[in-house]
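hey all, quick one before standup. I had two proteins in the batch that finished overnight and I want to keep them in one place so we stop losing track of which output belongs to which input. First protein below, input sequence then structure tokens straight from the run.
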Amino acid sequence: MITRFLGDTAVLTGRTMRHVTRSLDTIITTAITPVAMMLLFVYVFGGAIDTGPVSYVNYMLPGILLITIASGISYTAFRIFMDMRSGIFERFQSMPIARSGVLWAHVLTSLVANVISLVVVVGVALLMGFRSGAGVAAWLAVAGLLILFTLALTWIAVIPGLTAKTLDGASAFAYPLIFLPFISSAFVPTDTMPGPVRAFADHQPVTSIVNTIRDLLTQQPPGTGIWTAVAWCAGILVVAYVFAGITYRRRI
């Protein structure tokens, strides 16, 4: 059963990956917006924001990476919506393939596409002066956290992809996720915010994830914050996965 699932998922992932490679502009578009934000904040607003001994490009890169992921997963909802509208899901149901493999193919394609976009953004950040003395273990921890965050948001994207009535509706859900880092510690320290805003910023998932990535890249001990970040990502992933599975069974 597991061998069949893995084989079917691999074949279906190859199908969705071919769609991406034939339309590389989606990955480029996903990377352009975060890169433009990074240029704007570093070269326009960066001089007015006090981040202490940490350069501003180092300070705000973790938030930009999360925005990159939030931008990228909107294309997952888009691809699922297009498959739903074309009837390909129903066609797959008539074939002897693992039912969950269809969704996992879209999720894994999203993961690969987002990793490419993240690499592009980090490359631009290096050109802008980003530097990190973090070791291999710290970079692996950052990569693991970003992958977990990508999987969590991608499974959220599956739900509107299956249920949306229009193409705009399928991708519009990503806008709140893109703007969530702006009300966090991603771009400015939260202690500069008004009371209620600071309370929200300090207790939403993006802040713990951003702080953890920032600490790892600046060689600071993340403390218990890393477990809070992992718990947020894992919790969102489990809830989104369950609801996506329920939605899929009801729709197909």
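OK second protein, same deal, sequence then tokens:
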Amino acid sequence: MKFTLTGSLGNTGKPLAEQLVKAGHAVTIITSDEAKTAAIGAIGATAAVGSVTDAIFLANAFTGADAVFAMTPPNLGGSNIISNTTEAGKSFAEAIKKSGVKKVVMLSSIGADLPSGTGPIAGLYNIEQLYNQLDGVAVTFLRAGYFYLNFYNDLPVIRALGIMGANYPAATNLPLVHPSDIAAAAAEELQQVSAGKKIRYVISDIKTAEQLAATLGKAVGKENLPWAEMTDEQFLGALTQAGLPAELAGLYTEMGKGFREGRIPAHFIKEGSPVEGKIKLADFAREFAAKY
């Protein structure tokens, strides 16, 4: 089979491509960086260099593929993030229609069932709506949990202050995911026959924020690392002080509020809180310690 993947050689894109190549498929990887062409070739794939906001380029890259893995880059431009994400989704949808590809696996997110109040996830809600309108195209929405890798951003605070924290309480349950588990689910969905539109949650583990801090703290030699709940104002200030642009900091604060109020995981819980990923928090803690 022939697959076209977006996401370049990122944390999800690279292991996904490697699995598909190993299974004997022809894989084209879209990248905006021409310098990655050699690395893409080294894993047995073909590079297509261009922008994911260019519908004509995307249509050419999708043409002839049996299926496409659609991943919209996060934080496009650093400002007007939701609108930029949505516009990129429009380019994808236009390219899918023009190319005639009949199967798409989209990397989405927990909370993408909600149109607002979810921070950056709102852009993925908009894209899901666009893909739902694609006639004759089978689409699997992979709604991923909160990436383990995001907690690397907490390393400076752990080193300096000996805490972890956000604007939700220690008892908040967090559906978490490792990119390798997303890659495994995407590979499975791309290779199987499917029709219509469906949602598949990809979650590796569920832990409270308190359990998260304790596990990661122990891994880096800080026993009983506390979870500090902040107000929205305190969290926003901490993010901006850490150097995040004001708009992005505001979106992350809104997302934290969505977890605090239980809105973001509500549909996931309604579906039975399925956990299928293999990489548990204890496994990721070893990766986290290596970065510490």
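Flagging for whoever picks this up: The chain has a mean pLDDT of 95. The chain has twelve helices and twelve strands.
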